[in-house]
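User: Let's play a game. I give you a shape written as C-alpha cells, and you guess the letters that built it. Ready? Here's round one.
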C-alpha cells in the first residue's frame, strides 16, 4: 500500500522534469542559415535602391497577326537574330494565292482589251472597207445614170410615172448606201472612240488595284519582324489556329538585345530624389560581383501600381512606383531578358544636402 502511494508522486515529478526539458530545448535560438548569395552593396553614400527588370532596348515586342488562320510554317527559333522584315511565321495562304491568280487573269483580260482598242484600225480591214465604198459609189452612179435617162423620157409613152418614181427611189437609196460606206470607212480609219479608251483604261486600273489588294492580303499572311533583334520566345507551332481575340500570349516575342534596358521600380516616396543623368549601377541577383554601370534613358512620367513579379497581369501590391529606364551594353555579361537586377541610383543633390544637414 505504501509503495503504491509513492508511485504517483514519482510519476508526477518525472512528467514535470520532461516538460521542463522540452521547454528549455525549444527556447534555444537556432543558428541563422547563411544567405545563398551576398546581397549587393550600394556604391554611393546617398542612393535610391530599386528592383530592376531587364528588357530589350526596343522593349519586349510580342509579334502577332491581325488575321486569323492556321499556322503553316514557323521560320524562326529561339535565339535566332533577325533583321527588319524577316519572316517569322506563315499562315495557310492557299486561298489567298488562288485569289491572286484570279486577279492576275482579270488584269490580263483588261490589258488585252485596252491594247485591242489602241491597235484599231486593223490594217486588213481597211482594203475591204475601201472596196465596199467603191462598190456603193459605182451603184449610186449607175442609179443616177438610169434616173437621168428616165427623166429624159418623161412625158412620153415609153416610160410610166411609176417607173420614173421607182428609179428616183433607187438612185436615192444607192446614194445613201454610198454615204454609209464612206462613213463606215472614216469610222474605221479614225480608230477607237476616246470614251471607249477611257472605259478600258479605267478597267485596267481597277484590275490592277484588285490585284494589289489580293497580293497585300497574301503578304499579310506572312508575319514579319517589325525591327531587327533576337527571337526571345516562340509560342506557336505548325497546325495551330491563331485567333485575333486571344493576345495574352504572343506567338513570337522578340527585341533588340545588343543594348539592354533595365526598368527600375522606384518607390513613389523616393521619386523626388531621382535626378536624370545621375550615376547608376546594377548588380545581378545571385551574384553581386557581376555589375555594370548604367546610362540614363528616360523616366516613364506616370506613377503606376507596382506589379508583382509572378507574371500575373492582375496581381498587384499596394506600393506605387515611378519607372525609370537605364541602358547598358550586354557584351559578355551573363544577363538575360526578364532577369531581375538590384539597381542603385545616386540621389540628387537636394537629397545629399538634406542628409548632410542631418
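Assistant: Ready! My guess for every position:
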Amino acid at each position: 500500500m505504501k509503495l503504491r502511494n509513492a508511485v504517483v508522486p514519482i510519476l508526477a515529478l518525472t512528467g514535470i522534469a520532461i516538460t521542463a526539458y522540452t521547454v528549455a530545448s525549444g527556447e534555444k535560438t537556432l543558428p541563422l542559415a547563411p544567405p545563398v548569395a551576398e546581397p549587393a552593396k550600394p556604391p554611393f553614400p546617398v542612393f535610391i535602391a530599386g528592383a530592376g527588370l531587364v528588357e530589350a532596348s526596343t522593349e519586349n515586342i510580342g509579334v502577332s497577326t491581325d488575321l486569323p488562320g492556321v499556322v503553316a510554317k514557323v521560320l524562326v527559333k529561339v535565339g535566332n537574330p533577325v533583321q527588319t522584315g524577316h519572316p517569322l511565321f506563315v499562315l495557310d495562304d492557299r486561298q489567298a494565292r488562288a485569289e491572286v491568280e484570279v486577279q492576275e487573269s482579270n488584269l490580263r483580260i483588261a490589258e488585252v482589251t485596252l491594247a485591242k482598242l489602241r491597235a484599231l484600225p486593223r490594217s486588213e480591214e481597211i482594203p475591204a472597207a475601201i472596196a465596199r465604198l467603191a462598190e456603193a459609189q459605182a451603184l449610186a452612179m449607175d442609179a443616177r445614170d438610169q434616173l437621168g435617162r428616165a427623166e429624159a423620157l418623161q412625158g412620153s409613152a415609153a416610160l410610166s410615172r411609176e417607173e420614173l418614181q421607182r428609179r428616183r427611189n433607187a438612185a436615192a437609196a444607192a446614194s445613201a448606201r454610198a454615204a454609209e460606206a464612206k462613213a463606215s470607212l472614216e469610222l474605221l480609219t479614225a480608230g477607237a472612240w476616246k470614251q471607249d479608251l477611257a472605259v478600258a483604261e479605267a478597267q485596267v486600273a481597277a484590275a490592277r488595284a484588285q490585284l494589289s489588294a489580293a497580293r497585300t492580303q497574301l503578304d499579310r499572311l506572312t508575319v514579319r519582324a517589325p525591327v531587327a533583334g533576337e527571337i526571345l520566345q516562340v509560342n506557336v507551332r505548325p497546325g495551330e489556329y491563331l485567333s485575333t481575340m486571344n493576345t495574352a500570349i504572343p506567338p513570337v516575342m522578340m527585341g533588340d538585345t545588343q543594348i539592354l534596358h533595365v526598368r527600375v521600380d522606384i518607390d513613389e516616396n523616393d521619386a523626388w530624389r531621382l535626378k536624370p543623368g545621375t550615376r547608376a549601377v546594377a548588380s545581378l541577383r545571385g551574384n553581386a560581383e557581376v555589375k555594370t554601370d548604367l546610362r540614363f534613358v528616360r523616366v516613364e512620367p506616370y506613377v503606376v501600381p507596382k506589379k508583382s513579379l509572378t507574371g500575373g497581369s492582375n496581381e498587384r501590391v499596394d506600393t506605387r512606383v515611378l519607372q525609370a529606364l537605364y541602358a547598358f551594353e550586354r557584351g559578355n555579361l551573363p544577363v538575360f531578358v526578364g532577369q531581375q537586377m538590384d539597381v542603385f541610383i545616386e540621389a540628387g543633390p537636394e537629397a545629399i544636402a538634406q542628409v548632410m544637414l542631418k
